[in-house]
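Task card 7
Instruction: Convert sequence to structure tokens.
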Amino acid sequence: MKPKRRSAAPSSTVVADAEKALREENDRLRAEVAYLKKLQALIRSKRSAAPTKRD
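Output:
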């Protein structure tokens, strides 16, 4: 007895769900990159600022 073969193309709902998940992950990663860039700029500006003498 031969095993049943799956259809070659996945159903449209599976593709849509996978695409939605990838888009959400992409949006999250873009937000993370933007946050990290701002954080790096803040750290860079604090390091390059001339230290002030406190008495």
